[in-house]
Amino acid sequence: SSMAGLHVRSVLVTGANRGIGLGLIQHFLRMPKPPQWIFAGCRDPKGQRAKELQNLASKHPNIIIIPLEVTDPASIKAAVAKVGEHLEGSGLNLLINNAGILKLHTLDTETLEDMREVYTTNTIGPLLMGQ
């Protein structure tokens, strides 16, 4: 794979509880030299939709599940502190801004609220995470 030559000590994946995010966590686990730290960010770590991620984390001590709402600066700040505790000043090597939402609408049914939520999550969220 194209990531085969990549040696990552620490990675944070947002939206890690299902879909592509969960797939990325599984991919990192399968690497010949898996990251020392895999931070799995998700909105509701204890929820039903994070069951599979919880199972993985119980088997792999290098997976740290981080409660993370990418649209909430306070949540991001708390996540940064939690990640920092594990990294002990060494810095995060890789951030994968995977969290995103999709609201399917036609022009007739589109709402300001849904447009705002999509933009906040998919555009502002990665900006805040990058900062």
From TrEMBL:
Top-level taxon of the source organism: Eukaryota
InterPro entries attached to this UniProt entry: Fungal_SecMetab_SDRs, NAD(P)-bd_dom_sf, SDR_fam
Name this protein carries in UniProt: DHB2 dehydrogenase
One Gene Ontology CC term in the entry: cytoplasm
Listed GO MF terms: oxidoreductase activity
